[in-house]
Amino acid sequence: MTDTDTATDVVVVGGGIGGLANAYALATAGHRVRVLERAPAFAEVGAGLQLAPNATRILREWGMLDEVVARGVLPRRLVLKDALDGAELTAMDLGQGFVDRYGAPYVVIHRSDLLTILHDACADAGVELLADQRVEDVEVLPAGVRVRAGEREFAADAALAADGLWSTLRPRLSDDQPVCSGYVAYRGTRPVSEVTGLDADVLTDVVVHFGPKCHLVQYPLRGGELLNTVAVFASPAYARGEQEWGGPDELDAAFDGTCDAVRRGLTWLWRDRRWPMYDRLPIGTWVDGSLALTGDAAHPMLQYLAQGACQALEDAHCLAGEVGKQQAASTLDWPSALTAYQQARTGRTARVQSNARVWGELWHCDGLTRALRNQYLTERRLDDYRWTDWLYQP
C-alpha cells in the first residue's frame, strides 16, 4: 500500500516526547504533519521527569503549562545531600524568586502524563498519528522525501528522525555508536500512602543523595499522590567486562554504606527492569537535505542535568521558529530551514551533553574529591545561580 498520493509537509519518525513536540509545533504553524510510531501505541515506559524553566517557558507558549502543572508537582526546593551521612549540602529555592529569575516554574511530572498531553494536543491540531509503523528507510529526493515503513510509503516535503538513542536514521549522518557509561538506573513509583519512614522533604522537594559511584533521586508526582524514586550505580560486572551487568544482584551492594534514608529508598524500586545509561558524543551535522535529526536521535545525553526532555522541547520550538521565519518571508525551503535549525542548536546541545558527563563525575566522586565537593557546596550562597543561568535563562 502506498500513501504517496496523500503527501504531507512533514513526516516525524518516532512518537515520543520529542517527536510529538515537533509535530505539535509544526502543525499549529499550519503544516500537515504525520507521526509514525513503531510501537503498537503511543506510550512512555518510565517514571518521573523534571522540566526546568527552559522547557516550561515553551510549554506555556504552547498553552500546555497549566495542564502540565495540574498533572505534576511544583517542587519547593532542589536539594543536594551526601548519600553516606545524609547531610544536606545545598539547596535551590524553586519558589517565586526562581520563577521571576527564569520566567517560568520548575515542574516534575510523570513521563506518561506529559506524553498524553502532547498526544492529545497533536490530535486536536490535526496531526495524523499512526502507531505500529516501523520505518525502514527515508529516501531523500531532490524535492522532499519518501519514507518507507513495511509495505507502506509516505511522501513529504521533509522528515524528522525522532527515534531516540538507538536511532536507525542517525547512521545516515554519522557512523558513531552509543557510549555506555557503565552505570545503570532502577526506577519506581509508589503511592505515598503505601510507603513509610519517609523524610518529609521528599514529599515537597526534588532530593538528590549522591555518593561514591551511586546516587538516589526522589520527588513527588501527580499532585503528591506518588513517590518517584531513581537509583543509579556503577556496575562492577560492567567494569569486569562481563556481558550481563547491572542486575538486581548488584543494586543493594552498590549502596552498601549509605545512610538509612537512601537504603529505605531502594525498597520502593522496580527490580524487574533496569535502564543502562548511554549517551553519544556530540556531532555537528544533523541534516541531510530534507531529513533532520531531533531529540535523542540528535543529542542523547546522560541524565545528570535532567535535560533530555527539555532539550527535545527546545529543538521543536527552534525548528518551528526557523520554518516560520522563512514562511513569513514567503521563501520556505525545507533544507535551508533545517540547516538553520542545525546551526542554532548543535552548539547548545553539545554543551549540555558535555556538562552532563562532568556533573556525573562530580556526583559520584569519593575520597578527597568528595570532601572538597561537599565543602564547596556547603559554603555555596543560596542565591548563587552561576551554574544554572546558562542553562535556564531565556
Report on the structure:
- This protein is α/β, with parallel strands linked by helices and 394 residues long.
- It is built from 12 helices and 17 strands.
- The chain has helices at 17-27, 53-61, 65-71, 96-102, 111-124, 236-239, 248-254, 260-266, 308-328, 334-363, 367-379, 389-392; strands at residues 8-13, 33-36, 48-51, 77-82, 88-93, 107-110, 128-130, 135-141, 144-149, 152-161, 179-191, 206-211, 214-221, 226-234, 275-279, 287-288, 291-293.
- Strands 1, 2, 7, 8, 9, 10, 16 and 17 form an 8-stranded mixed β-sheet that branches. A 7-stranded mixed β-sheet has the order 5-4-12-13-14-11-15, sandwiched between helices.
- Strand 9 and strand 10 (152-161) form a beta hairpin.
- Helix 9 packs antiparallel against helix 10 (334-363).
- The longest helix is centred in the C-terminal third of the chain and has 30 residues, at 334-363.
What would you say about this model in short?
The chain is 34% helix and 26% strand.
Write the layout of secondary structure elements.
Layout: E1 8-13, H1 17-27, E2 33-36, E3 48-51, H2 53-61, H3 65-71, E4 77-82, E5 88-93, H4 96-102, E6 107-110, H5 111-124, E7 128-130, E8 135-141, E9 144-149, E10 152-161, E11 179-191, E12 206-211, E13 214-221, E14 226-234, H6 236-239, H7 248-254, H8 260-266, E15 275-279, E16 287-288, E17 291-293, H9 308-328, H10 334-363, H11 367-379, H12 389-392
